[in-house]
């Protein structure tokens, strides 16, 4: 984590991370995160292995180039695009945060 704070969950574990922390979220275990507080989060994400069907290509296709040199307004993802790309890259969407973490 470079800036901000997150609650992470992976499998049955949940923990908080902030600037200076790191976490390993292994492939094959359901995992996710929730931004905590009002500050944006900056994090460095490394994915292994890379390659033709790697996660980095999913992120590249799901995203879009910035329209300005400022943070965009938060908005929901394009669900049709998300479903198509998760299928293409073999990613399974399994739900939301564990019950103890939902608001």
Structure description:
The protein has about 100 residues and is α+β, with helices and mostly antiparallel strands. The protein folds into two domains: about 1-45, no CATH class; about 45-65 and about 75-95, no CATH class. The chain has helices at about 55-60, 80-90, and strands at about 5-10, 15-20, 30-35. A three-stranded antiparallel β-sheet has the order 2-1-3, with no helix packed on it. The model has no long low-confidence stretch (mean pLDDT about 85).
> In terms of structural class, how would the helical and strand content be classed?
alpha+beta
| Rg (C-alpha, Å) | 15 Å
Largest sheet: 3 strands, antiparallel
Trace the largest sheet across and list its strands.
Answer: 2-1-3
Summarize the structure.
The protein has a 3-stranded antiparallel sheet, with no helix packed on it. The protein has 2 domains: 46 residues, no CATH class; 41 residues, no CATH class.
Topology:
Layout: E1 5-10, E2 13-18, E3 31-36, H1 55-62, H2 79-88
Antiparallel strand pairs: 1-2, 1-3
Defining key terms:
three-stranded antiparallel beta sheet; single chain; 2 helices; 103 residues; 17% helix; 2 domains; alpha+beta; globular
């Amino acid at each position: 984590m470079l800036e901000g704070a997150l609650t992470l969950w992976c499998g049955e574990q949940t923990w908080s991370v902030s600037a200076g922390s790191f976490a390993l979220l292994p492939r094959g275990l359901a995992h996710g995160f929730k931004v905590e507080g009002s500050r944006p989060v900056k994090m460095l994400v490394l994915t292994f292995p890379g390659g033709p069907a790697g996660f980095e290509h999913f992120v590249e296709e799901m995203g879009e180039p910035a329209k300005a040199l400022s943070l965009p307004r938060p908005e929901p993802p394009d669900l049709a695009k998300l479903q198509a790309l998760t299928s293409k890259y073999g990613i399974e969407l399994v739900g939301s945060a564990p019950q103890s973490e939902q608001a």
